[in-house]
Amino acid sequence: MSFTNRRNFLKAGVLSSAVVIMSGCSVFGITTTRNTIKVLENDLFPKANELGIDTADYISIILRHPRVTQEDKRFLKNGAKWLNETSVEMFQKQYTKLSFEKRQLILKNITSTEWGNSWCSTVLGYTFEAAFGDPIYGGNNKEAGWKWLAFEGGKPRPTEVYL
Amino acid sequence: MYDVCIIGSGAGGSPIAYELSNAGFKVVVLEKGKLYDESTFNKDEIAVCRRDMFTPPLGEQKHIINEYSPSGKITRYDGEKSGWSFWNGSMVGGSSNLMSGYFHRMKPNDFKLLSAYGKIKGANVVDWCISYETLEPYYEKVEKVIGVSGKIVKHKYQEPRSTPDFPYPMLETNGVTKWFDVACEKLKFTPIPTPRAILSMNALGRNGCYYSNFCGSYGCASGAKGSARAALLQKCKAKVITDAFVYKLDAKDGKVVRAHYYTKHKIPHMINAKIFVLSAQAIESSRLLLNSKSKEFPNGLANSSGELGKNLIFSAGGSGSGRFIFEKLTKEQQKELMQAGLFFNRSLQGWYEYTDGGKTYKGGTIDFLFEHQNLISRVNREIYDDEGNLLWGDKLAEKIDKTLTTSRVLTFEVFNDWLPTDHCNVAVDEKETDMWGVPVGVINLNSHPQDLEVGEYLAKHAVEVLKQMGAVEIDSSISSSPPPNLVAGGCRFGNDPKTSVLDKNCKAHDLDNLYVTDASFMPTGGSVPYTWTIYANSFRVADIIKKELLLV
After folding, report:
1. How many structural domains are present in chain B?
2. Residues of B with CB below 8 A from A117's CB?
3. pLDDT tens string A11-53
4. Is the Cβ of B398 closer than 8 Å to some Cβ of chain A?
5. 20 to 30 Å CA-CA from B160: which of B60, B271, B306, B316?
6. A→B interface, C-beta within 8 Å
7. pTM
8. ipTM of the complex
């Protein structure tokens, strides 16, 4: 199924932070966008974890940010659902419960699809915001992301999070 | 009653506010956006560049965009659905707060494109109804009042000046500019230190530049950047009302009598004044006049000619880049390359006019600058390998590390004429409305084939310089995509009321007290960024309005 069709199909769906994973016509399980993306972020960009940066909480900011469109929020949530459904199809388990090697196979699979490539690059974009944005947003712990790249943040720095 | 009501607080409106309020007149400025100033500006990449905090959300305010292809096919884009935004800085001082401040004057021939270069098939090229000589004193005034720093270098297309040099010395530059100058010498090109609307020293009651490394797209926290707010509105007593979206002008007996505006909570207000000055930026100024139709003006205010909204132009051209990598540099050069904060500030204008195939063309300007230092954006550019496959894991981290810590990109921007055509204009949509229920602007886009030819010609020379400097991964992209921050036209000025909206004083032919002073008045745009010319023209019109008010 193409990214566009899948995206459009799910536009009309009822959405919540709970992600219902379907296997065929049956409900396979329930997880949350945050849990799925937390594991995925570490697979896509483990350097953040090495630097002591937690990028997972930042997704919660994005999911409630008024400047992020509803369509983009839906895409984030739907991608988590499709990722898990692909995991179930390939290995009969949710993504978060698979071994590292199997998760890599899933990533190879989905990044060869239009939706998967687009979704992973979107997640990476938000991961980078957390890792390389101002530490006031909760990521980039002690400017570790900046220090890694010998980058000095612009001044003045923000004194509050822009929500 | 106010003497003058100005709609829009950017580079087109603020000189009027500054001059007239300082002359003792009662001036009010209506600004749709909020007030940000030196105390509130910061360098938060997420807020400013990722969440677009200074522009309206497209779900609340958008445009409809119709793109004309050379085959005549029209593709319609809904700004909200496509994410295509034509907004700039919605704030006191407008987008001048966020500009990089690359300041070049237009050249004398830019004022007489038709006479100097002849007719161009498919383009509505005309001469301006004023000359360079008329505007020159006001260009000089901008240098002093807004604050322009630089150094005059003699070159073939240096425009005449009434003063020998800029009032403020050049900003400090990165060591790589020396490589640029050497390369240009070998190629027999003349490098020009780029004039900037940035104070290089404390002056005019403002602080000098502190080389934050984050200039363009960001507000300036020192006041060094010559924004309309820092340089003018904060230096005068004009009353600025924020959160005031003007949606209609009422006219009676050949005069505008009041402006209607909404707050963001849709509370309606109105203001009366003797004189109205419209400067909401080109697209929105035409939209407001088109939305202000009445029995007396059934086709829109000031539109008896039918020319309102027509001949919208942008800056044509594009950009390119080359990368300098550590492997090809000495230790000393590596250090120079990575020096943060200092500007590059070099321009080329050697092909402002050129002959190709026996024909003389109006050319343009090339500005060179380092790639924007926004870190998230730079990291994001590394997620694909050379074959276009998405990278992740250690491979991705290695690529980011190597690219960002052992190389740096020098970019160039090409500015040439976006020729005015019949299919590039502003209208209003019959169905789509904004958050206030007001019909949104329609932007009809079309570019002339010559725009691309000239842009390519200029980019070729920029690429030569990058090659001579030893850059790798050299790339250039000249396209017909319109830069939303470089827009003009729609209310063309001219001497004939049948073919222009404004007279030579930028007053509407149809009304006794309505002036338009953003870039809308420009029949052609020159081959430079517009801001200096907008400022200069607005100071010129301020003198005209002052005289008129003194006569009343």
Report:
1. 1
2. 390
3. 333 334 667 777 676 666 777 888 999 999 999 999 999 999 9
4. no
5. B316
6. 43-47, 65-69, 104, 107, 111, 117, 120-121, 124-125, 128-129, 132-134, 136-137, 145-146, 148-159, 162
7. 0.95
8. 0.94
